[in-house]
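Quick start: read one record
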Amino acid sequence: MNISRMDLNLLVYLDVLLTESNVSRAAARLGITQPAMSNGLRRLRELFDDPLLVRTSAGMQPTERAEALQPAIREALGIIERTVQPQAEFDPAASKRVFRIMASDYGEATLLPALLQHLANVAPGVALDILTPSDVSFADLEQGRVDMAINRFDHMPNSFHQNTIWHDSFSCVFNQRHPLSSDFSLASYLAARHIWVSKTGMGQGVGINPQESMRLGRVDEALAELGHERHIVVFTRHYGVAARIAQQPDLVATLPTRLALTLGGDQSLQIREAPFTVPPFELKMIWSPLLHHNPGHQWFRRLVISCARLPGEI
């Protein structure tokens, strides 16, 4: 293949086709006719000697070759875009940019206050649009429609860039009147009534089976390894709700420590380190290679990392 004779627009066509898995939608996104897109797909099939997209009962699906090509093509297009577009310096003080971030309520409660404080001081015109995991797909991130996602990620596409914001442990939160206040031990913890809270990942299923302790998350996995399980009476996906419910005198919530520390001003609550070892977790931020070299995005990523400190360290 002689690249000097190749129409590089075909790479753009292929990227959009693989993202949309639909010729009509891909044509609409690129502002061309469906016959033109179909012709482009024909030329791509000839170029790579592979069907690339095949029709199945579930719609158009990429071949194995197409799936292998997409990350490299996405990176190549990003390099081309950076090459042909002039890079202007980013001026935070004058910027009116809106940064769109997918974050759980854990990320919002622990990171957002410090981030907003810094923005008010150095970039008062910059705004944040916070989206929930259910609002965003990995395709939105890959295409740069969302600036970054901040969450715990067990799996993600290899094309994403990533950085660890911090590691966090687990602490128990309960009312001062709870029996745990005077007898805090593993035995009394197991005898208590518990609030379960966790964030489902992007695209994960719904529903909790209390009998599947090894699928309930780090806290219950750690207990199961010790041969124990806790008595869970309420399941929620919202850390803020769990913290509020923990004000009840007969319930206890085991929460990420950084989130628990945000409740330190509530005199009705006690915060104690979990009475058993729970492996820490990583809070990460991930972003598209299409935005990796954008000056404003680079500035914002540095700001997020600089704000990743415990309360009082700002």
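Residues 201-206 have pLDDT under 50 and may be disordered.
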